[in-house]
């Protein structure tokens, strides 16, 4: 009797628990899965590469980043400007004011050079000329040389910075402790005029 009950129980369980069988994927389905996974991986890698190269990453002391410019390299008042090639700028000290000029001509992007004999910047490509302050003198350039904003710290703890219009910083009669130049923000000078200095 116990055997019959066990057989009946096994029969009832077999009927109550249907067996689900899943067929293995065919070769075609398997290749579709592999192809789809490969496509997702390639698109993911392309997205990561795009983000990696599209987002700017400028280190301090490189063009596009912040420069802590050595105070001892600032030219004396009305001396020849100092060229910082790694930052693509000129440091000019004129009439007691300090300005950082972007070293690219505003005409077609050539590199103007300081010509000591003429006491001015001259573009070798198309002849545009600029004063020590970067102010346009003559030539095809549409405006004065662009500038980079700076923050100057003095020995008494005070600071002075470039105005929003790009005016130079007055450093006359004050001891400069540090100069920070932001080459990531170019200040475009309007027309052939420079902003009021101060």
Descriptive report:
The chain is an alpha+beta fold. The chain folds into two domains: 31 residues; 117 residues, Rieske [2Fe-2S] iron-sulphur domain (Rieske Iron-sulfur Protein, 3-layer Sandwich), CATH 2.102.10. 22% of the residues lie in helices and 24% in strands. It is built from two helices and twelve strands; from the N terminus they run H-H-E-E-E-E-E-E-E-E-E-E-E-E. The strands form three sheets. The chain has a four-stranded antiparallel sheet with strand order 1-12-9-10, with no helix packed on it. It has a four-stranded antiparallel sheet with strand order 2-3-4-11, with no helix packed on it. A four-stranded antiparallel sheet has the order 5-6-7-8, with no helix packed on it. The protein starts with a helix and ends in a 16-residue tail after the last strand. The mean pLDDT is 81.
